[in-house]
């Protein structure tokens, strides 16, 4: 039975279509198409699985994952109290506009998460996992073929104008999430936050293939293959900007989709690593036909080792052998990526170029690459400085960093080989697409927000995937990336103990201004 089987239901649907058409010319038609396609898919799935056999397969068309709306309502009430407290302390009132961040974390198949009330309700193990713990943990019959959670899709709403966060909702997934399921979950979360007036100006995620597929679906132009850095919210008609997180990268009103910047930074440094002589897949050439790449980084490390052997201070203290020689880039580590574009690394490369005139061009080309990364990330999208106007130094740094890579790409505009997927002279095309999304999305977000709210400011580093360090991410780290029902108890105890510790903040608060009393 369908809602359209009655005249009342049909009339109500027509009213909804008419209201949607007021938001946008084609919104009513799009909504009607979605309803009809979902209804058709639902009844097809019901018919396909009518036998009730154990081997039946159900999709999100039938199984609708729930969101704990009471929790978000409670957060909305707390936000109102937060506004009063902020104003009382002399701050501008928070705008209730924020960034919606999501990430997918693996939980080793053992955690049971209750999506309806956002709580852990117990643990599950198969009978063969550890029989001695059946008196503690619930056992599952192997014949039931119960699907254990392998991934948890985590969401977090972060306020732009204050320190307020809304954690959740969470969705459990038995395997890697598909693009169409991700689309459903993101839209459901957007809708619920919008209903409670948590306006989203930025959507933030990493550059995983499912996320990119969702971006293309949301942002592809109808008359071409180009992808814009924004789309229109289906719930309130506002523009939603798209950005890739710089730190996790590879990633309103709901208004901005921001792909994690650190993720992108890791991709940029990994691209440089792929230009190594032995086993590299790239052979970078700049607009002046100068070859450059990872060899410069290796030379910096070798010079540092000679300095240390001679009793001199190393120029790049945190640079390790494993960052240079071993294949540690398969995991795209954050630490080496951060090190490569720090000022002390740039100074070390400059000193190397000055000391080797015959190799100066190659080293300086690598230096320019890393300087552009520094402006884009360290002094740009990962900056701690305030962005309170469109002429901000942070935005200028981002422009200069992006201009380097744009100029580099344009220098090959007449090269037919550049259009090949396997081209070696430039960044991988996926990395370039993510870089463009991050740049245009962040710039568009800053332009709209600062134009609408000239007395407020943005802290770029807060727009980062690291913000979603939720209970699962913390527990996963403490358990050595193997979170399960066996080590959950010890992990949560370690986390609670760690959070009870207080640090000495004298070094941050006027430490040098306090006189020492010596006797």
UniProtKB/TrEMBL annotation:
The Transposable element P transposase-like RNase H domain extends over 95-218
Q: Which domain of life is it from?
A: Eukaryota
Q: What is this protein called?
A: Transposable element P transposase-like RNase H domain-containing protein
Give the species: Amphimedon queenslandica (Sponge)
